[in-house]
Fold:
Amino acid sequence: MTKDCDIMIGDVVYNALYRLVETWRHNTPHLAHLYSLAELMAVRRREADDRLEAAFRKEAGKGGMSRQPHSPEFLEAWHAHYGEEGAAISGQYLYPGLLLVFASNALKRFRDDMDASGDEWRSGILYGGHSVGELIAAAANGFRHEDEWSKVRTPSSRQRQSQAVLTSALGDPIDGE
Structure:
């Protein structure tokens, strides 16, 4: 039996890999859908921008862009744009975040199934001294707790840990690295 009382197939390593592959296989259609939704949101944002630009050109052609556009068509396009743009921006953030959370959860289970720790988990290609698994977990933590992280002036030790992983791998945007 596994630690979580599931039937173990083969030895610990085989079982861990089996469960990771099965998790990925069963979720592939959903992951593909989330990815396609992220792409769709980028397209929708461009389309909303194009419609607003067309409304600006049309309004300017009427000579109505001096201070405040007054045509009902323009105002309707203006309001529709910001609703569509807000939904598209939210989707461009939400769907990749959900992909990160899924990947993080799958890798955490794999790590636990393998009883891997520290140096065993930190192998292969490293980015700023951190594995891809560590980067995914740190990014997923940022997505999960974004509302909490944005409210604090001094990050907690757990927040600093995830932030340090991302900063090491990606560079410090404040220092321009």
